[in-house]
Fold each of these.
Amino acid sequence: MKTPWRRHRWWLTPTLLILPAAILFSVVILWSAVESLWISLHDWDGFSPMTWIGFGNYVELFNDPQFYVSLRNNVIWLIMFMAAPPLGLAIALLVNQKIRGMRLMKSLFFIPLVLASVAVGVVFTWVYTPQLGLLALIFGFFGATAPAVLSDERFVTFAIVIAALWPQIAFCMVLYLAGLNNLSEELIGAGRVDGARGWNMLRHIVLPQLTQVTFIAIAVTVVGALRSFDMVSVMTQGGPFGSSEVLAYQMFEQSIFSYRFGYGAAIASVLFVIMAVFIVWYLTRIIRIEERGA
């Protein structure tokens, strides 16, 4: 006679394995999002009792010029970060070649990924130093004076994004290297028999097999661009005059330095909605593409 466990093992085993992660996700992510949304409807300094103000924080937020500066900077981050997946793929294709010395090259390209974001920010702060940095040396070689990009409202966001792209490209490279190592040798061999070489091989044989990797690379890159905070904090603290702030840093600044946790929660809620809309749209599109392919 079978015990209850044996009779229901087909669904009890996966449920018990998934349950701890589901509970952790619900508490850390879902409950935190709901709590943040609730706080955004109040005026709260983090210490005294919360005061209900409804959508007052959101009304103030959408009338705040700094919000649109931060939102514009997030769009710049998003557009520039889209260079990470194709550049990561290009580097992965390069270092995946069976050529002497490629292991060393692969290690050098991998270094940014193991560095902390704070370390990357510090390194690029030195690179951009007008008098002594690497940028100054390059400009000096051509007899020119390097601009102080971190002090210029026109260039500061672009300079920070370039610094953040360094480890992001390395991350995408690692993803694509894993994908390239799992390519079907049969399909590649069949392509060679049919005369596929170079671009045709890449387009018709390699890239279709990297669809799932590309999905992960783009999704992680977009989320990374939208939640950008640490590089801004290390390199400029949102300056000069708030010109390099992004939504995540504005949320942090309003909550921690201005003691406006309700207003900061409103910014966090808007950022969460933007991410959620993108993720839902992207997942829907990927599912439709896969259904057509099936």
Amino acid sequence: MANMIKLVSTIGFSVIFAVILNEVTAKPQHPPLKIVNGTTAKDGEFPYMVQLLSDSDAFFCGGSIIGDRWILTAGHCVEASEGGKVVYGTNLLAEEKHLDTAIKIKKSYLHPLFAYNYTYGGDIPYFDVGILELEHAIPFDAKAQPVQLANSETNSSAPMPFHQNGTLSGWGVNETFGAAAEFLQKINLQLLNDTECARKIDDYVSVDIFNSTHNLCSDDYYNGECFGDSGSPFVVNGLQYGVVSWSFKPCGITPGTYSRLTTPAYREFIRNVTGI
């Protein structure tokens, strides 16, 4: 028996980029996907977390504060951000709640090389990073602070923190096609090295699809990112190394992937736009 698997960028509910993969051998049934299998974050625990709302106040992506007027997110989230707003300083899902910590998006910046790369496995977004400029500055306090970004791999003497635990946080659904989380979720995941990522992801579809220039992955089998977590940060030792980009569905069937912020072309884009 074979099943159909969707490869989707994990943008939320009104806009979903998806392609249907060719049939692959059915995998063993996994437990109910309950971020999946995460726990509720404490209020103010991740002061860099923001949520992106459309012009109709519908939640569609996560993001991180990197400056008082600057939000880092996924490139495919930027595509859906026109007329939207950013909500900061709260663990509560702000959808249709009209919270006073919302700031309109002034301008969006998509990586100039952003594109979907067609492979046998599906359409994979490359250079999947974007920047949102806000209409006015976020007033920093205990619940709203910027995250520090990891340096480019070519400009850093520190090795990549492979096999160390990092934290993924987001308001994404807790099971495939479920409802967005009412409160911010978190989960600790180990950052895998490139060989492990390629093996775990590529073996699933029997095609080379993981690209270590563009992506990182964490050991989130049965756990981790799902719809709505796109743009959310993956942080190791206080530094953001990744932005949730794409994953196979159902959620947790393989490790999810992040845009690799230490790749020079990604880090330089952020610096050129924001000065950060």
Amino acid sequence: MSKIKFHPLEPLRFPLINRFYKSYYPAGKAKRDEIIWIGENTSGIICCVRFKQFESYQLLTGMLVHPELRSCGIAKQLITATNEQLIHTPCFCFAFNHLEKLYQDSGFTVIADNELPEPLASRIQRYRLSGKELIAMRYQH
């Protein structure tokens, strides 16, 4: 596998990220007001993650690694590459149960729902009611 370059998505390349989501994670859809980081190699975009901005915190969301490259450590490399984004503003995420260790190994800790800002506490409850098994986490640097 060729070397991966991690960086924020250039605005002109925004349509490419939604094409990437549509191919491998149709429920994911980037929005222009999000900060998006990507990893790419000579074959193109192979991973991405979005940061939804709120007034005094952010939500890491929509992390996606190309299916053929999963379990190779790319997700952890992507999170590590976004360190300047993570430490800039308090960061939360909703991890699927099976990804808890990945996020813990990347600096996130499990928190109780009542430790989330109210808009996120309501959001995680809605997601769980729709059948998603999620864990609330916060980045600790």
